[in-house]
Each structure stands twice: as structure tokens, then as C-alpha cells.
Amino acid sequence: MGTLVGSRIVGRYGGVIIGAGGFFLGLVLEGRFLHGAALSLIPHSYFYITYAFLVSFLIFLFANIGRAPLSLTMALAGTALGIDVRIGRLIDYKFVILMVAFWVIAPVISIVVSYFAEKGIFRRNFKNVWNVARWLKFLIVISSFLTAFTLGANTLGFIANVEGFNFLTITVMTVAIFSGAFFLSSGVIKRVGEEMYSMRYSNALVSLVVSSLLVEIATFFAVPLSNTQTLTSSVFGVGISYKYKAIYMRPFLIIILTWILSPSIGFILGYLV
């Protein structure tokens, strides 16, 4: 929701309500698509599943303290692979290679597509600027909801399928969705929506649309892909499309570092089980 709030269309709580609603509906309607990914990555043992969740939570907690948007998907997948190697479980290497390829290629596509979309579409002189602005606001709200929906379907769907996609799991996760959105999101929203650079309506729209499309494609192929990667990359792509616009590189570098460290640390701690 950082791009929606950062573009000043809605306040933080309005953005949180839109986001939490999207998370919930994505989880309920498309979360089952990640069932195959969960089976491929972690053994169905409550001991190993609990350990994987605990490690992922600790990694996520440290990232939250630093206000860095962490890919929980990458942390959980890395931990699961570490456990697999430790116990000698047969690993589906084709799926792992496909997943890592998505992790590498999707951010690159996000940057490239966002860069050219911003330069090619939204740098034109429109006759009725105010009418265009009203339409952009409306489209940004819709695309924000769709982005949250894809996160619920992919990231949260992956988590739900690791534990077991049942009524109790969905109920607990629903409570967690709304609690986390309202009480733990302010730091990340500020990092994405304000500290990287001051966002315009077109910036926010391009970032959200590109991110949601890529994550929905990954969901279709049952591959866990974090919105954190695609959205942050698209925000960066939009930012560098401006020749004279100041980009604060430090937040981006911190985020990229968490992408590398979260699966790596998860793998090491998973192996040490």
C-alpha cells in the first residue's frame, strides 16, 4: 500500500483497509493455486513446518525493525530447502530452478517495463489534465486492490498451503492479515511510499499494474513470487525514468540486500535443524 499512500490519494488507514481486503480475498479465492509449491519445498511434518515458520518469522522481524520490505516468501522457501538438504529429502530441482528464475527475472522485467511505460505513456501532454488525474486516481485504487489480491493469492496462499489449506488456517490468517495491516505496516509504507522518492499518480499506477501482472502470472504457474520484489523494482524503474529526479539509492540497496540475505539465512538455519 506504500505506493497508494505515497501518492497521497488516500490516507494510511484507507490504504490499509483496501490492502487487507485484497489480501483476504486473494487468499480465499486463489490461495489453493500454490498447493504444488508447498508440496515441492517442505515435508509435511508439523515439526519441520513449525520450525520453518519460526525461522521465517525471526528473519521477518529483524527486517521489520529496519523498515525494509522483506520477501517472506523467499525466507520461507530458503528455510524449507535447508531442511530438505539436511534430512536428505528428494528435491524437485526443476521447480527450484523455475522459482529462482522467477525471483531473478521478475524484478528485471519490472524495472524495464516500468521505465518504458512511464516514459512512453505518461510523458505526453494531455488536453484535459484534471480529467486525466481523476481517472488516474480511480485506476490507482483499483490496481492497489489487485496488487494486494495477488499478494494474498501468492505469498499468503503459499504460507497457507505449507500448513494446510483448511478452515482453521484461513481463520487464523484472516485475523493476522487485519492485525498486521493495521498495527505493523506504518514503517514499510513510509519506506516504499515516501523515502524512495515523492510519487506522482502515473508513478504509482505503473508500479502497481506491472507488479500485480507479474505476480498473477507466477501464481498461474504455481510459483511463489513476492510482491515485495516486483513492486519495489517497478518503483525503481519508474524513478530512473526521470532524468532530473532525485532517487535515494540507500533504501533500494537495503531492500536488495534483504532479498539476498533472507533466503540465504533461512537456508542455513533450516539446515541447522
Automatic annotation (TrEMBL):
It is found in: Membrane. It holds the Pfam family PHO4. Signal peptide: none annotated. GO terms for biological process: phosphate ion transmembrane transport. The keyword Transmembrane helix applies. Potential transporter for phosphate. This is Sodium-dependent phosphate transporter. It comes from Ferroplasma acidarmanus Fer1.
